[in-house]
Amino acid sequence: MKLIIIGLVVFTFFSLNLGANILVLEGLPSPSHHVLFRVVNEALAARGHNVTAIGADIDHYAVENVTYLHLDRVYESIYASGEDPINFVEMGKINPWMTLAVLTQLILKTFDGAQKSSGYQQLLNYPENFKFDLVIYDFIATPFLLGFMHKYGNPPLIGLTGYNAISMTSVILGSPYHPSLVAHHCRMESYNSFLRRVENYLLHWVDHTIRKYLVLPKIQTGLEKDFPGLPPVAQLEESARLALVNYHPVFEPSEPMLPNVIGIAGLQIQEPKRLPKDLKEIADQRSFVFFSLGTNTQPEMLGEQRIKHIVGAFRELSQFTIFWKVKGNLPLEVPPNLVIRPWFPQSDLLAHPNAKLFISHCGLLSTHEATWRAVPILGVPIILDQFMNAANSVKAGMALEYDIRNVTKDTFKSTILELITNSTYKKNALLRSKMFRDHPEKPLDRAIWWIEYVLRNPNENIFRSEALSLNIFQKHDGDIVVFLSCVVFLCLYITFKILRVIVRRIKVSSQRKKTKYE
């Protein structure tokens, strides 16, 4: 009997911890976000969980216990034929308000493409009695995939994102933040002056208003035909137990953080693997520079003239090998020291001892990898948070920022040489790397522990904030400020009235005395 009881306990433990069905909703169409999700998906699968992931970016190779459903119409919807293709180099020049408008349209186009996708229909046609024990979703993408959470019985929800702002968790967890001080993700320059802080404050409020009164109602209407009885999607996302955020104080200014906001920056960084033989042979020969504009910005977006200046600078830096991630061919002759390929094992390449510099768009994952490997950065930000990531790296003393839109051969070359020959940048990179790595556990281990914490405690949510019951006006004490302002105004008004009466009586009394003596 004791053996049977022990067996049941062991079976229950393993079914809870090693055999959960997990639904992963990768709503944001971005290869870099998928890099982060892929690491989590495979780590969960390695622990015996069954992972079903749906997204626009998927892996086509087989991994045991991981099933990918493809949102194959999303990029088609975003880059619709008949419209001008998105050029991120040009998009990065527009002001924050226009950026916010463009992003709003991208969200709605993503939703439209998702609903038309084969993967969406596949998941929609899963048996009604199919059971998921947990849902993980990219909450930066808005909740347009959370209808599946409702369809499968509202299992516990976890937010996960490759983005870094704690303030963004306010939507799902009720995190406090200060709109005038927390940089909005469309902000591209310093916001320390009073007027910049006012603009930053307004950006947060306008963003909130657009999301609540434009985006979410359209998503709600669009989902209701697929998911009968669907509650408000905002209500669904507010059931999130915790948020795994790509945050570390080495990279971002400190913000107020609830206990269920878990920083996982560096999660995608693994022990360096041996480079492919042909790449290793080149890297071993001499010092090299690695150049990548990330997964969304392609070099052709720079235009032929800019590319001519960049390649000209590389040609004159013949003492170094230059690795440049380019899909396709460059529109001019390539010098012998320039190696172009559509893909490089970025993190492994940066770990090589001959890596002297990373010319980067300063996407967050790339910034983390360069910092972890202690490689100085020449930041050439293109859009959104890349500008802030570059500025923070410059502030840390391990980087310089360069305007790639106004590139010239001589200034580009001299900036590269400054970063390589001035040892200060490397020393600061080593210091920043030390601070980034100094943790009691690996970021991936931390993420998996918290995911399985929710699996172990599916019916408990001890972290839920009372702030979720407040609207944004109340959350920022707007109602209290208005009330106290009215009280002060009323007191001043009453005081003014009393003083006015007193002054009037004094005047009347004075006139009577004057009349009496006359």
Description:
47% of the residues lie in helices and 11% in strands. The protein contains 20 helices and 13 strands. It has helices at residues 2-17, 31-46, 74-78, 88-91, 96-115, 118-124, 147-151, 170-173, 194-224, 233-237, 277-285, 304-316, 346-350, 364-372, 386-395, 409-421, 423-437, 443-456, 472-475, 478-517; strands spanning 21-26, 50-55, 66-70, 134-137, 157-161, 242-245, 261-263, 288-292, 321-325, 338-341, 355-360, 377-379, 399-401. Helix 5 packs parallel to helix 9 and helix 12 crosses helix 16 (409-421). The N and C termini lie far apart (118 Å).
Give keywords:
alpha/beta; 518 residues; 47% helix; 20 helices; 7-stranded parallel beta sheet; 6-stranded parallel beta sheet; disordered N terminus
Q: First CA to last CA: what distance?
A: 118 Å
Trace the largest sheet across and list its strands: 3-2-1-4-5-6-7
Quick one: overall form?
A: globular
Rg, please?
28 Å
How would you sum up this structure in a few lines?
By secondary structure, the protein is α/β, with parallel strands linked by helices. The chain has helices spanning 2-17, 31-46, 74-78, 88-91, 96-115, 118-124, 147-151, 170-173, 194-224, 233-237, 277-285, 304-316, 346-350, 364-372, 386-395, 409-421, 423-437, 443-456, 472-475, 478-517; strands at residues 21-26, 50-55, 66-70, 134-137, 157-161, 242-245, 261-263, 288-292, 321-325, 338-341, 355-360, 377-379, 399-401.
